[in-house]
Amino acid sequence: MSLQRYMAAVTCAVFISTGAVSGQDQIKAVGDEVTFRPTNINPPFTSIIWKHRSGSDVIKAIEWDIDDGFSIPNPRFKDITTLDNTTGHINITNLTLIHSGVYTIDINSKEQEKRFTLKVEKPVPKPETEIERISNPDVVNLRCRYSETIIWKNAAGKTLNGSKNHLPGEFITVENTRNQTNFYTCTLKNDVSEKTSDRVYERDLFKGEDVKNTADSVPVFIFPQIFLLVIVCVF
Ligand SMILES: *[C@@H]1O[C@H](CO)[C@@H](O)[C@H](O)[C@H]1NC(C)=O
Ligand SMILES: *[C@@H]1O[C@H](CO)[C@@H](O)[C@H](O)[C@H]1NC(C)=O
Ligand SMILES: *[C@@H]1O[C@H](CO)[C@@H](O)[C@H](O)[C@H]1NC(C)=O
Ligand SMILES: *[C@@H]1O[C@H](CO)[C@@H](O)[C@H](O)[C@H]1NC(C)=O
Ligand SMILES: *[C@@H]1O[C@H](CO)[C@@H](O)[C@H](O)[C@H]1NC(C)=O
């Protein structure tokens, strides 16, 4: 066999085998339900076993046989898992992160080739932005300190490119344009959800702009002293 034909044969074999075993992949949020529907399985069924594999751990999710009926041996699947013994369909509700992994089905004690992959993800939290002041009083950095995908937008709906530095998440640099209605938002996104922060108005970022830079920083130092005075006076 020539090298090219050999390569083609190997490529085909790899393609066919991955095609046969990859099955359907599903991504769900915590709390969702999932149903896996195997095809090409033919009644009559005398036993059905769904197995869950995660890492090197293999457990039975649910099983049925014609003599003993249904059973769910592992607490991980109790009360949330159902099996249709006419179709082989499995249904799992109230999903949590530990249900992620690969599911396989044995029909009449024979493992089927098809694999069903499940990835359960937490919905993203509603993000909060952090303000980082720098030496220039007309500029601040707005940070979204999260590891998920971050999308910044301004009031006009334009997407802004965030920057990264040594801190977690991304920041944008906002300049004071003295526009009362301009604002920014940070949106977090993963495979199962998307949430947007409250609007951060430019006017709230540059409140003390009419006061001189030095005067601006004075209240920060005065307030603790007032509190101290109050405490001292009370006692
Ligand atoms: C499904 O399981 C129930 C309970 O074990 C049984 O009564 C019923 O006959 C089964 N149906 C089939 C098609 O095997
Ligand atoms: C599944 O979730 C629903 C709604 O969140 C809840 O009412 C129910 O108790 C949960 N069931 C189990 C078995 O965890
Ligand atoms: C899965 O189970 C839940 C709860 O019993 C049910 O509401 C839902 O319709 C089922 N889904 C499928 C596809 O069977
Ligand atoms: C934002 O990033 C994209 C992709 O990296 C790039 O094509 C685009 O020019 C950037 N825009 C700005 C304003 O820097
Ligand atoms: C101020 O910002 C808003 C929102 O982006 C925009 O619609 C408006 O045109 C801006 N005004 C000026 C004077 O630039």
From TrEMBL:
<protein>
    <recommendedName>
        <fullName>CD48 antigen</fullName>
    </recommendedName>
</protein>
<dbReference type="InterPro" id="IPR036179">
    <property type="entry name" value="Ig-like_dom_sf"/>
</dbReference>
<keyword id="KW-0472">Membrane</keyword>
<feature type="signal peptide">
    <location>
        <begin position="1"/>
        <end position="23"/>
    </location>
</feature>
<keyword id="KW-0325">Glycoprotein</keyword>
<keyword id="KW-0732">Signal</keyword>
<dbReference type="InterPro" id="IPR015631">
    <property type="entry name" value="CD2/SLAM_rcpt"/>
</dbReference>
<dbReference type="GO" id="GO:0016020">
    <property type="term" value="C:membrane"/>
</dbReference>
<dbReference type="InterPro" id="IPR013783">
    <property type="entry name" value="Ig-like_fold"/>
</dbReference>
